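Example 633.
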Amino acid sequence: MNSDNHSKRKERRLPKRTLWMAIALAVVGLIALLYYFLPKDEQSASPNQAASAATLPKIVSAVAAGEVKTLAVRGDVLVATKTDGSKITARKESNISAVETLKILGAPADALAELPIVIEEPTANFNPTGILAVLAIVGLITFLIFRNSRQPQGQSGSGYNFSNMGRSNPRVISNAHDKDSKSKTFLPPPVTFRDVAGADQAKLELLEIIEFLKEPDKFVKLGARIPKGVLMAGPPGTGKTLLAKAVAGEAGVPFFSISGSEFVEMFVGVGAARVRDLFKRAREQAPAVVFVDEIDAVGRQRGASMGSGNDEREQTLNQILVEMDGFTTDTNVIVMASTNRPDILDPALLRPGRFDRKVILDRPDVQGREAILEVHTRGKPLAPDISILDLAKLTPGFVGADLENLVNEAAILAARRNLNMIGRLEFQDAMERIVAGPERQGKILSDYERKVVAYHEAGHAVVMHNLEHSDPVHKISIISRGMALGYTMPLPEGDKYLRSREAFEDEIVGLLGGRAAEEIIFKRITTGAANDLERATKLARAMVTRFGFSPTLGLRTFGEEQGNPYLGSLGEIRNYSEEMAQTIDHEIRHILDTAYQRAKDIVVIQQRKLEALAGALLEHETVERPTFEALMA
Ligand code: ADP
Ligand code: MG
Ligand code: ZN
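Predicted structure in complex with magnesium ion:
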């Protein structure tokens, strides 16, 4: 098991112990109750245990002899007090009265008539067990309420508890082992970089943060402004939370974690109070890491949702910003936040001095997946015919969480099949389960589809590489990302404020490179180019209608964009004639056709290089700039 699971277990430990105590109390209460309710008759005899029918004749003879001073009746128990002070206790049948019983047994009627008989209510007895039972139950309820109110919010299901609303209840995992080790007996082994496989780039960027947490003086002495916030962006399950924990683990500092989505449903003001409290505690325990999970839940762009501003969200976000701005140069607290929607974040969050470091976590490629599988199969008995690399190759699109799940499911299957090793079949079945399950987002492509995607992306890259005005290709990948099945990333060299017509034309050619490769290699085209075509069309339209790049249509612009920043585009006002519209359409078509022909020409000429690149993509899934340029040379 990996150590992330250990820490989860630790987080649950406190409520578990509580549960046991509650169960013990409940059992005690139940026993007391049973004792109280069931043998009621015996209870009433408790003053004298020797009550039985056998002593009845003794009472009778004592009555006959006139030796009985008083007779007490408590339910079915008779207690005769003799003149000498001694007592005889006996038990009668319940459906017959005491006097009658004695009469039947031969006690003289006149003696009985003179006998003072005291009837006592059996329930009037002092009953210690009953009171104990009541006490136990009251105690139990109090205890449960008390405990419940102290349970961390994160263990959801307990609802809000109002007495405690403003406190942040962060989940703290302390990694400081050496300090007062006694009270930390239940500490999980800290998560370290060893538990995070792949993600080398991200780790590299976080090294500095760790160094700072360990030795802040080194930085402060030189007057360096310490980074405050690190934003970790990436699809769900790629290890953002894990990596944040690992940073705290590597630095050996406490880790405070809180989730943005917790704030969304709260009352106005509560979120802000919690944030304040959380930061206060972190500062007290500095150096520390504060982790705000799912920050997009509170950090959405303000004003983006028309009118209905969410006050709570806004106040919570503001409080986070206020806290971060309030850090002085020697505040040794690093705020790490995670999101899978960096695009919708409020720009105020990303300003310098706030979350100005950005660490990107991508879906892992083959090597990354292999490394992650290594981590999660550590200490698990695998059948000798299993190759981790093969497993990695079979799982394109899987993120770390999926891979962990895969190994776990396979282990569960093996256990249920009473095997002592996890075999190939178990992995296969586990894979089917996971792929069929609803949670996964990555796509699994057939071999043919993978090949098409590889050639498509290779097409973009090769075409771009052979264009004069195109930016150099930075990275090509066939790992699906959101809607796209693959991507080719050009790296703009410096900002450009003026772009030439040729640059526009080349960009369109590059966009059409994917479709061109598909057509030439497979003689068959797919829907994979839909997004490329859309973008190419937009560019072509802009060339014609905005920038006056078309010789046929001249310098005038066409259409007027109407809209406002809050409401978005309201569409276009058409300020040209129907014939003009047709000419525009022709012109756009002409631009696209010319560009497509150029793209196809390049693909035909460069076909060998294209194939080499597609092969590399099929094998490694991602190809970075140096490898790419070597292939093109
Ligand atoms: P996120 O916060 O990005 O949604 P998590 O950090 O919660 O993802 O990751 C979920 C689980 O997936 C982790 O607990 C870990 O077991 C596994 N995991 C994810 N990425 C990695 C990785 N790079 N190396 C090892 N395990 C990983
Ligand atoms: Mg997470
Ligand atoms: Zn494309």
